[in-house]
Model the fold of this input.
Amino acid sequence: MADNLSRKVTPEIIKRLEDAIGAENVNTSDMERILYCHDLAPMPKEAGLGFNMIPDVVVRPKTVGDVVNIVRIAAKTGVAITPRGASTWGLGGCMPTAAGIVVDFSSGLDQVYEIDETNMCVKVGAGCTWKKVYEACAKKGLLVGSYPSSFPSATVGGWISTGGIGPGGFKYGSARDSILNMEVVLPNGKLMNTGFEKVANNMSGYNLNQLFSGAEGTLGLIATVTLRVHPMGVIKPLAYDFENLRDMGGPINEIVKHPSVKPLHIAWSDYMHFEHQRKAGLHAPDVKNLFLVTLQGDAEFVALEEKIIDAIVEKFGGKKISAEIAEHEWEERCYEFRARKVGIGSIPAEVVVQNIHWSDFVDECYAGFGKMKMAGGGIIGMIADRSTAMFMPYYFMDTETPLGMTAFAYNFYMGERAKKYGGRSLGLGVFFAFNLDVIRDANSAEYMRELKALTDPNDIINPGHLVCGKTRFGINMGHQLMGAMSKLMQLVKTFMPGDNGFEDSVKRFKFDEIEEHKGQTRKVKL
Ligand SMILES: Cc1cc2nc3c(=O)[nH]c(=O)nc-3n(C[C@H](O)[C@H](O)[C@H](O)COP(=O)(O)OP(=O)(O)OC[C@H]3O[C@@H](n4cnc5c(N)ncnc54)[C@H](O)[C@@H]3O)c2cc1C
Done:
């Protein structure tokens, strides 16, 4: 039974948390609370006028039992809980909207518990980074199918919760396709298994592994995850240079329809991306527009796939480039935004479109940079599956002024353009929650809201996210209001002077030891 549902974190609740999980894992310092009030998206302090985004307390569970105890306390008192991985998402997913408790999974539940080579699976804490699990499995000759390109810091629970698309996904699907089981703590504090630890989920019954994937932490807290892994074999990246980015549309559409060729990863980076790396003082390969196709598996099959891909790419005018560059770009797959070493924010607009429209959408990305007067960073992306391409055109923005935030107009704009090509923008979080009613039919949006209301009647788990973006005054940021705001933001952006933050920052750039060290982490030197 609930004690009080005032949503207020009282000293008594703090005491209960300390007794349950240890005082050293409960933090109420002002500094800590401010650090935990947003995710990767920089928020001007004015955002606090709209959202109750500074949590009352930050907790760090070390065990599954700790997560259960935290949720039970919140369920009894009506306090909001915001689950948080590494906060590398940019849509405010782990930004509190009703203060309360932030549960930081990255510092305690971050272990690889078991690699089962017989049953080909690995069990990890939800706060384990993709890099940690990838490297632990690789040492045993096992491959984690897919992961986000933020894998050095992004957590397993975080990426599953966003239902994202990442390297390895073309062959092995997204994270949701690799889940065997998750231990999830429900809004009432009960612990549930979503699947089976060592065998597939296939049978009748609702697919709970899939339900929590993409739920953005609104249905429960993922405490552990068991993922399927694959025999590593060899990994062979191939790189090709194209005079024009749009010309890659031909080979992409031929490769995705091939009955036998199934690359691990298909990706591209345009000339702007490399130009910015050079301007930022980084080594970049001597290419114009780079097409990267990475093969994986048995060496003989990989050699056969390579021949087929070489022939397809040649037919469309692509030029094969050295194995050294290919290897370098594969190693760089998780460090795409190095050009921000000049000290400026870079943000991608993440959208999916149908592969068949790939070349036309390239034109849209460039046109969007011009129309929105962006400091365009580059056009990068990857093929998600046989019908879907994920574009991440990114730009540089000034994160120090509220007006710099108008750069987000490009994300709204590209999301709208993607619709014309059978696609949409990715992710909802707080700022794009209104999109639920735009991208889904009315009945499916209603079904999701009913599911949330039924399973979390007091709205304690990540309130104000995904199914409804709400301000601190209870104003629903619905699609009419946000649609109008998005249009207004786009209009304002077109009237403002063009962004030139990158060039300014290059001039201002000072030697930075941390950035220098990050450069040194590049395994393949050109
Ligand atoms: C350089 C860079 C590259 C990126 N590349 C990709 C990419 O290739 N593909 C892609 O899809 N995204 C990408 N992203 C976006 C982002 O990194 C991913 O979505 C990432 O996996 C989020 O993980 P996180 O641990 O940082 O989650 P957070 O940002 O902390 O949280 C994301 C969401 O998950 C919820 N959540 C976190 N942990 C839990 C949990 N244990 N239980 C329940 N809910 C939880 C949060 O409440 C929030 O709604 C990239 C971002 C950056 C900065």
Remarks:
- Residues 234-425 form a domain with the Vanillyl-alcohol Oxidase; Chain A, domain 3 fold (CATH 3.40.462.10).
- Residues 39-40, 82-89, 93-94, 105, 126, 148-150, 154-155, 157-159, 161-162, 164-166, 216-217, 221-222, 337, 462 surround flavin-adenine dinucleotide (CB under 6 Å).
- The CA atoms of residues 259 and 386 lie 11 Å apart.
- DSSP finds 19 helices and 19 strands in the chain.
